[in-house]
């Protein structure tokens, strides 16, 4: 298993799309935080503090989702189109281990992409205007909790993207489908929930809904528990489904 | 320890209603170079894919190194190197990086094997060139290097000479012979270039429409390849009458170009030439010949091309 993870990690580090995403996200975060500072200062307002920028970057985190979709296409699905998946599947490692290793390293890639934008925003704003403060909570506790939750949610989302990428087995299709899926799933739940209340209840227990809550200051016990458990359950359940699908997949 | 590297037992693969493989019983002895011959769609790649673990059989089973349970088969596949259909490479990586990925994947300790394998296939000087910029021949060599990483005991090569220039084909053949001779690697090789396969294989398997028609050794093949007298005269019809009448021979063919293949009197050609000359025929070509692998294969599959 260790050798599979090492191999996947090596490939992730060499993946041009991953490197390009890191560069683009870092540059946009840098630009955005500096722009916010200048804009607010010119308007005569107090420039945003580190914690403010961190909180605003957490909301929704579409950058993480878009990055994750692109990475799913290049890192997972393209291996089917280039044929290298044949070599991996014929390497004598069990299919279960192969897909688990891939999902773990892909999740790690998504975590890095997910953390990059808020982290750079927070760091730059802190350097320019200080960390700032929160009314009801210590900044350190808030920061550690939100980083932890972001990690869990990136992992949860990545497990869903892995399943789609394994099904699609083609980079372009995966990128297009995952983007449409993740960006419109909220709309689907909102519309369907209006007519079927049960769907709205389900939605409130999904990673899609809870992603918007990870920046909540001093969340109550129930919300915090849901925010911890649901991404973990999503990661495990989709991981099992990934293994099931991949084990039965005829690799072309 | 099993003397067979690979055995298939009633191996069957059905796609919808069609049999890609039908009750195939194949066996490859340790140390053999097994030439796997068949037309496109005959079932070669399907069998190779099942052996490599990329597809599962609809019925029957395979034994690799004497192992047939799912878990044991996975372990046994670690002893196999393969190129399936085409060399599968990461296009944005160099040759070295591609090999490093596979080294890590197979858990091979130390990086020394990478340089050694690259040198073996003649790709040691490719430097930082990405494999997407490689020629087809270079990609084939790199595919072989990946297959050879970790010193496999069994090599499965699907059309390994595709895209190689004539010198490359010779080098590939010599390399495979060397690996077989010096390292004792068993090789399963499928190729459309039967003349090339004839120079390499020690055993053959002929597959047609999903059925394994025959397995035979190179010696058996040589024995079976029919020898005949190739005759060209000024009047083929008259010559046929002489062969049938005076020589009382029934095993002959008049080819569309007017030449005659006479499968009798191969050891006594003098009798034939005397009879033809006595009948007033002018002999333009007269020589003993033997069928090659291609002709034998064509005759085995019923003359279909």
From TrEMBL, chain A:
Keyword line: Membrane, Transmembrane, Transmembrane helix
Q: Has UniProt tagged this entry with the keyword Membrane? A: yes
Q: Which domain of life is it from?
A: Bacteria
Name of this protein: ABC transporter permease
What are the TM regions of this chain, as residue ranges?
Answer: 20-38, 58-76, 104-128, 140-168, 175-196, 223-246
Give the residue range of the signal peptide.
none
Annotated organism of origin: Paenibacillus mendelii
TrEMBL record, chain B:
Any single GO molecular-function term of the entry would be: ATP binding
Spell out the InterPro entries in the cross-references: AAA+_ATPase (IPR003593), ABC_transporter-like_ATP-bd (IPR003439), ABC_transporter-like_CS (IPR017871), P-loop_NTPase (IPR027417)
User: What is the name listed in the Swiss-Prot or TrEMBL entry for this protein?
Assistant: ABC transporter ATP-binding protein
Annotated PROSITE patterns: ABC_TRANSPORTER_1, ABC_TRANSPORTER_2
Every copy of the ABC transporter domain together lies at: 6-234
Classification via CDD domains: ABC_BcrA_bacitracin_resist
Cited Gene3D superfamilies: P-loop containing nucleotide triphosphate hydrolases
Q: Would the keyword Transport turn up in this protein's UniProt record?
A: yes
